[in-house]
Amino acid sequence: MEDVREEELSRGLLQFIQDSPSVFHVIDNMKKRLEEAGFEERRERDHWELRPGGAYYVTRNDSSLIAFRLPQVFAAEGECPFQGYHIVAAHSDSPTFKVKALPETVAEKQYVRLNVEKYGGMILSTWLDRPLSVAGRVAVRRSDGGVDMRLVNLDRDLLVIPNLAVHMNRDVNKGYEYNPQTDMLPLMGLLPENPDGEAKESGPQGMLLREIAGQLGILPEDILDGDLYLYVREKGRVLGSRGELILSPKLDDLQCVYAGLEGFVSAVSEKYANVLAVFDNEEVGSGTRQGADSTFLEDVLLRIQDSMGYGPSVYRQLVAGSFLISADNAHAVHPAYPEKADITNRPVLGGGIVIKYHGGQKYTSDAMSAAQMKLWCERAGVPCQTFANRSDMVGGSTLGNISTAHVSLASVDIGLPQLAMHSAVETGSSRDTAYAVAVFERFWQE
Ligand code: CO
């Protein structure tokens, strides 16, 4: 792997994450990148006209996206138009805190805090004592009676969740159980001394809404609702004695999303339709209308055949000839906790693509699909490693087996090795991003 490419991709990844403070921004940035590369949007509610060689993308809920590129030439009439779909799937969401409705709450008649709840399973303590802000989307009243969805990023240091002093919790270093309702509410500031006559009486209600309305240049009362989340303000960075490590929020799973996107935009296949599928809500079980446990992927694949005049049996033929790489970051062996890893399957940072196996089939990899993956790695000149949970430990889940329950195709589960998964900032390696881009490119050039 060339060092130049590696550096460029690391910078690109960290910028992509910084520009994507919420899941809606992830999809918005993907759209921009795809449009730059000549992809055209198709909306689910419209009639689709597709052509051989065409490159398209579809979104659902503005938080999931499926992009696809069809082969230049289709087979003769009466035959399957191409051999199948080559799909990489990843997820757009990461653990965070969701801002509840009516969020402002006052303590000691002085401190204004926001009422929030957990989205996904994060390491709670890592969110303490660092600058945070709010991003997401709001639904805005339109003058014609409709509703516009607007992206929001307050984009300034706005909030902090302060720890309790060690003097008041002498045992904190022996382990402390954080309560999400009482310990984790971010402080948004202090009530103003002389708040234009009435704010002290009327309370802080609407402070956040007013801040958002001010930024969007609209009236607070025109904001009908919002999906707003906290995010970590610190920028991702390259570190390590040779710049070989990266430290950033949301490497799970934006490292795979970014590598997927970079590998996808330029790759062309003569035999397969290439697909990049990025699903929301993996961190909360995928069970939404835009999650991996929805009909989104199936709907898009079905409509590709329909719009080109092929029937349902062609769909099934294509699915039978398809392959899914489910890409969701993996646990590298931690230097301080070597005993937490399996005794023989021990991936490390910088060691390349991690193929994940699970006897209970939470991961889709089997001998056939893993062999395919190893061959693609070999052809791309990329090393691969293997992961399994210790036999006495329960691991996490991912989106591969959920997707294949809807579209039953051959599939392998992989990830890039990282440390501190679901911490507010996670540690990974620059080289593994470049490895992933190279192997995805190879896969999509079949
Ligand atoms: Co993940």
Question: What is the gyration radius calculated from CA atoms?
Answer: 23 Å
- Which series of helices and strands comes N to C? HHEEEEEEEEEHHEEEHEHHEEEHEHEEEH
User: pLDDT below 50 for ≥5 consecutive residues: which ranges?
Assistant: none
What is the mean predicted local confidence, pLDDT? 95
Termini separation: 21 Å
Q: Based on CA inertia axes, which overall geometry fits? A: globular
Computed structural class:
alpha/beta
What do these coordinates show?
The longest helix has 16 residues, at 3-18. The model has no long low-confidence stretch (mean pLDDT 95). With 446 residues, the chain is of the alpha/beta class. It is globular. Helix 5 crosses helix 10 (430-444). The protein is built from 10 helices and 20 strands. The protein has helices at 3-18, 23-36, 199-202, 207-216, 251-266, 296-307, 312-320, 367-380, 400-406, 430-444; strands spanning 40-41, 55-60, 64-69, 84-91, 96-107, 111-119, 132-141, 147-153, 187-190, 223-232, 237-239, 245-248, 272-279, 323-327, 330-331, 353-356, 384-387, 410-415, 417-418, 426-429. The chain has a 9-stranded mixed beta sheet, with helices on both faces. A 3-stranded antiparallel beta sheet has the order 5-6-9, with no helix packed on it. It has a 3-stranded antiparallel beta sheet with strand order 8-7-10, sandwiched between helices. The structure holds cobalt (II) ion. Cobalt (II) ion binds at residues 91, 252-253, 282, 328-329.
